[in-house]
TrEMBL record:
<feature type="binding site">
    <location>
        <begin position="100"/>
        <end position="101"/>
    </location>
    <ligand>
        <name>substrate</name>
    </ligand>
</feature>
<feature type="binding site">
    <location>
        <position position="86"/>
    </location>
    <ligand>
        <name>substrate</name>
    </ligand>
</feature>
<feature type="active site" description="Proton acceptor">
    <location>
        <position position="22"/>
    </location>
</feature>
<comment type="pathway">
    <text>Metabolic intermediate biosynthesis; chorismate biosynthesis; chorismate from D-erythrose 4-phosphate and phosphoenolpyruvate: step 3/7.</text>
</comment>
<comment type="subunit">
    <text>Homododecamer.</text>
</comment>
<dbReference type="Pfam" id="PF01220">
    <property type="entry name" value="DHquinase_II"/>
</dbReference>
<keyword id="KW-0057">Aromatic amino acid biosynthesis</keyword>
<dbReference type="InterPro" id="IPR036441">
    <property type="entry name" value="DHquinase_II_sf"/>
</dbReference>
<comment type="function">
    <text>Catalyzes a trans-dehydration via an enolate intermediate.</text>
</comment>
<comment type="similarity">
    <text>Belongs to the type-II 3-dehydroquinase family.</text>
</comment>
<dbReference type="GO" id="GO:0009423">
    <property type="term" value="P:chorismate biosynthetic process"/>
</dbReference>
<feature type="site" description="Transition state stabilizer">
    <location>
        <position position="17"/>
    </location>
</feature>
<dbReference type="InterPro" id="IPR001874">
    <property type="entry name" value="DHquinase_II"/>
</dbReference>
<keyword id="KW-0456">Lyase</keyword>
<feature type="binding site">
    <location>
        <position position="79"/>
    </location>
    <ligand>
        <name>substrate</name>
    </ligand>
</feature>
<dbReference type="GO" id="GO:0003855">
    <property type="term" value="F:3-dehydroquinate dehydratase activity"/>
</dbReference>
<feature type="binding site">
    <location>
        <position position="110"/>
    </location>
    <ligand>
        <name>substrate</name>
    </ligand>
</feature>
Length: 145
């Protein structure tokens, strides 16, 4: 199975960006870990990051008919992007919404997501290990559906 991992704006700065919220592991480190885990699970992961909404929308659109599952950390677009929500609805690929920090324990504006009600599930507040948990959950979902 093909799993697409999409990371939104400012996640390229992981490791140095507000480590109290987002931890000390870089996106490269997280990516290496989930690539290894994917190999163990017999899955293929394709990992993408962009700061630009149109590139994220484009990547979701391009996944139609190619990816079996999407793991997405929409970052700040979680709270703003109807366009990214609509792209996920359009391609009809099951997805998990993922956040490193607990978005419910922070500013009130982070509690609302444009994705949670259409996601298979949501992981928030477990740090970088959330990516590994999401991949395991994706694998489990695909083996059942
Ligand atoms: C985030 C939480 C968002 O509120 C924030 O804008 C991010 C990262 C997280 O992974 O905890 O950029 O998605």
């Amino acid at each position: 199975p093909q799993v697409l991992v999409i990371n939104g704006p400012n996640l390229n700065l992981l490791g140095s960006r507000e480590p109290g919220h987002y931890g000390v592991r870089s996106l490269e480190d997280i990516s290496a870990r989930i690539t290894t885990l994917a190999g163990e699970l017999g899955a293929d992961v394709d990992i993408f990051q962009s700061n630009a909404e149109h590139e994220l929308v484009g990547r979701v659109q391009a996944a139609r008919g190619r990816a079996d599952f999407i793991i997405i950390n929409p970052a700040a677009f979680t709270h703003t992007s109807v366009a990214l929500r609509d792209a996920l609805l359009a391609v009809d690929i099951p997805f998990i919404e993922l956040h490193l920090s607990n978005v419910h324990a922070r500013e009130e504006f982070r509690a609302h997501s444009y994705f949670s009600d259409i996601a298979v599930g949501v992981i928030s507040g477990l740090g970088a290990v959330g990516y590994e948990l999401a991949l395991r959950a994706a694998h489990d979902h695909l083996s059942r559906n």
